[in-house]
Design brief:
366 residues, alpha+beta, eight-stranded mixed sheet, five-stranded mixed sheet, elongated
């Protein structure tokens, strides 16, 4: 299963066979000719059920309000929840965080420069060339804690199924705008299903809900350490806290680079960096949340300081820290901007790039 309540599959499910590449490029050409982004918005979605695992795959068309055209496929109920969280939030940072948290694969038309070496190799082997107005098709994977990368064999199947069904669903939706229904978390989706093990079987329509999994903001911390920090005198310090992606790649050449998150604390008045560290993620977004209170407690204990107030620009971070702030009598505030922390992270990124660290792609299509 793709949902985080079960172990995630390996990052690579094998190389994409050449015949699968051929099928993907053929379907992408048909999608380009159909141009469903002319009448389908990003939230005009339907679900394809993985015939083997029965995981839901949410299909969303890209292009009506952006500079690129294509389709995104969100893998699993948890990714679907993050998709809707991103659509509904008014916070730019939280929108990006939710999109990064959602495991998704994309078939998108863009510049030839966006292609990875394995895609260029497949295009040469198939003798293909693209001169479409939309650009060159590519098929990329987006996973929490990792940078954009070519799809593996399993993810390529998701795109194949999504495009097959989009070519059927999109024209019907153009003729009947009520086909897909309305709503978000509580909606009954148009599901496209077929029997497992029979790739020749036709996909069929079903109407079915896809309940989002519950998300818990609780991140337990050691009681003894909480009591120890709680006994420290109120320092009067107003600090800005942020946990955000740090746009550098970590890893060996030729391997998928990790996308680390920066944990940063700054003094709101002076901008002095009080604490900085990297967090790598293995699993879901909640595995990131679980590390944050402990990082803060370790800072307080080592520096012998208990801030009077913490400011955040991400509401989810404020919620993660709320129980601990309440226990320590620290004021918890959400602000539109936390300039000291923002400037500090931007400066650290520039220093890393100038020092030779790879300046990673900022997931341009999320």
């Amino acid at each position: 299963m793709t949902d985080s309540s079960n172990p995630l599959p390996p990052l690579s499910a094998g190389e994409v066979p050449l015949e699968t590449w051929r099928r993907l490029y053929d379907l992408a050409g048909q999608m380009s000719a159909l141009a469903p982004w002319k009448w389908m918005q990003q939230t005009d979605v339907f679900v394809v059920e993985d015939p083997g695992s029965h995981d839901p795959l949410l299909v969303s068309v890209l292009g009506m309000f952006s500079d690129f055209c294509g389709v995104a496929v969100y893998a699993g109920a948890r990714a679907i929840r993050y998709f809707w969280e991103a659509q509904q939030t008014q916070e730019p940072e939280t929108k990006m965080d939710m999109m990064l948290a959602a495991w998704q694969v994309q078939a998108v038309f863009d510049s030839k420069d966006c292609l990875f070496a394995v895609e260029r190799k497949a295009i040469r082997a198939l003798g293909l060339s693209f001169r479409r107005r939309e650009g060159w098709p590519y098929f990329h994977s987006f996973r929490l804690g990792w940078h954009e990368w070519p799809v593996d064999a399993r993810e390529a199947l998701w795109i194949e199924w999504a495009l097959e069904n989009l070519l059927d669903v999109a024209p019907r939706f153009r003729d009947d705008p009520k086909l897909l229904g309305a709503g978000a978390f509580d909606r009954r989706y148009l599901f496209r299903t077929r029997p497992a093990g029979d790739s020749s079987a036709a996909w069929r329509d079903e109407r079915r809900p896809c309940p989002p999994p519950a998300i818990a903001f609780m991140a337990p911390a050691p009681k003894e350490l909480v009591a120890k920090v709680g006994a420290l005198p109120d320092s009067g310090l107003v600090a800005e806290m942020d946990v955000r992606p740090l746009w550098v790649g970590i890893g060996e050449r030729g391997e998928r680079p990790r996308l680390p998150y920066a944990f940063i604390l700054c003094a709101a008045d002076s901008g002095v960096i009080l604490e900085f560290g990297l967090i790598t993620i293995d699993g879901d977004f909640e595995s990131l949340w679980a590390q944050i209170p402990m990082r803060f407690l370790e800072f307080c204990n080592s520096r012998r300081v208990r801030p009077a107030e913490l400011r955040f620009c991400r509401s989810w971070l404020s919620k993660v820290m709320a129980p601990l702030c309440s226990s320590l009598n620290i004021k918890n505030e959400v602000a539109f901007d936390i300039p000291a922390a923002r400037r500090a992270c931007e400066a650290i990124e520039r220093d890393l790039w100038q020092g030779g660290a790879p300046a990673a792609n900022r997931t341009r299509n999320l």
